[in-house]
Amino acid sequence: MRYVFLILSVVFSVSVSGQDVTVIRKSVEQINKTKNYTVKTVPAEYFAGKNRVTDNGIELKGLYRNGELKKMEYSVGVSAWKYQTEYFFNHNHLIFVYVKKYQTAGKNGYLEQPQLLSEARYYYANEKLIKATGKPDQDQESTNYLKQANGLKKDLANYRP
What we know:
By secondary structure, this protein is α+β, with helices and mostly antiparallel strands. Helix content is 32%, strand content 45%.
């Protein structure tokens, strides 16, 4: 009897997380399709004032719809690489993170077309990671994206142009 209960609970939990991922994908698709966001950009100078400096720039954009944060785009250039991270929100809760790492420079200087080195997707429900897909960069594997998103939301709130 315990064996049957165990199998049923595993099947149920996989089924529920699969449904969550489908709902999250639809929300992310809708956020990306929506136009006319109010955009707030936090420039590199703001981060320099907080002693967060990179050699190839840093920028944060918040996309708002009716005063509600829907998406953040965070770009950091470090040496020969560029990290791009997109955070998606539903009712002010993180639901999805999309991370890409590019090589921007080679032996002969900057590349005309940056090369994608890694990309990963992280799905969240109720402030918990429920699924991760893709190939994360080794430097980013242990990143707590929920904590990072909350810190970046504070940066958006605190920045005054």
